[in-house]
Prior knowledge:
With 114 residues, the chain is an all-beta fold. 0% of the residues lie in helices and 59% in strands. The chain is built from no helices and 11 strands. Strands 2, 4, 5, 6, 9, 10 and 11 form a 7-stranded mixed β-sheet that branches. A 4-stranded antiparallel β-sheet has the order 1-3-8-7, with no helix packed on it.
Amino acid sequence: VQLVESGGGLVQAGGSLRLSCTASGSSSSINAMGWYRQAPGKQRDLVARIFMSGSTNYADSVKGRFTISRDNAKNTVYLQMNSLEPEDTAVYYCNVLHLGRVYWGQGTQITVSA
Length: 114
């Protein structure tokens, strides 16, 4: 399974960005897709995750601001990020659970300026 991310960049506080991640290769039977982030000097933490059933998980810090969605036909997951804060600055990684194995994207930088 290969993951291709897009949509990162620089934005002012209060702004919005949308990330996308497309899985290719042997991507049938994907169990879950999601996003993690890692700020400098910190561990990589879950931001949001969506299961193939449609159920979702969000980090408390992004609830009400971020929305995760997916297009199963395209094996693509999206993360709509609104009301961005400087604390959201991090490298964001796409994450896929496929047949019990975890795959990671290359990461995309998001920088939110005050």
